[in-house]
Amino acid sequence: MQIFESLKKTESKTSVALGFFDGVHNGHKEVIKTAVSKKKDDVKSAVLTFKDSPQFALTGIKKPLLLTNEDKLKLFEECGVDIVYCIDFNDIKNMSANEFVDTLCETLNATSVTTGFNYHFGKGGKSDATELKNLCDIKGIECYTCPAVTHKGENISSTKIREYIINGNIEKANEMLGYNFSLKGTVM
Questions:
Q1: Residues 6+ apart with CB under 8 A from 166
Q2: CA 92, CA 49: separation in Å to the nearest integer?
């Protein structure tokens, strides 16, 4: 798997999953697997994600993350991803929706993109998955939006998983993650 820390011009065509993917939980895996399923001999699967939370870049509020970037990359590789763009959100936060889609087309050479149902992009996060599809249609990029993935009647989300962990319900968190949650740190 190739890893880039900036938006590097890609010669090969790509099928790109878009999102921060904190936790790479079962909902995120659906988005990533959809992008991976679109790869062919001449199309590589890719993920465009961020080194740090977009919320932190926009508000200065830092939530605890479910995974380190290193662990996130391992899960991407397990999903069959060929290329990861793990960039600084500040590099794109002021792009308009059109500029962002131009970047997908011209820099990442995207033939398809996949997002979750609640995806937002463009300056101020004002554009949503519907606008992404409309802009991609203009550029000839296929656009897929995955519906919410549920577990026992609840939408799976990183926020919900964090709540379960904070409240000590690790079993429910693990069910939504699709793997066992763990902590890393130095014992003092």
A1: none
A2: 11
- The CA–CA distances, whole Å, from 8 to 5, 14, 48, 52 equal 8, 12, 11, 19
Backbone angles phi, psi at 50, to 5 degrees: -130, 150
pTM of the predicted model as reported, rounded to 2 decimal places: 0.92
Q: What is the largest CA-CA distance in the chain?
A: 56
Q: Which residues pair with 154 in a beta bridge?
A: 151
Instruction: Give the C-alpha separation, 27 to 159, whole Å.
Output: 12
pLDDT tens, the chain, 188 aa long:
999 999 989 889 999 999 999 999 999 999 999 999 998 889 999 999 999 888 888 888 888 899 999 999 999 999 999 999 999 999 999 999 999 999 999 999 999 999 999 999 999 889 999 999 999 999 999 999 999 999 999 999 999 999 999 999 999 999 999 999 988 778 88
Burial label, 32 (beta-carbon count in 10 A; 0-12, 13-18, 19+)? buried
Structure-token pair, residue 28: 């995120």
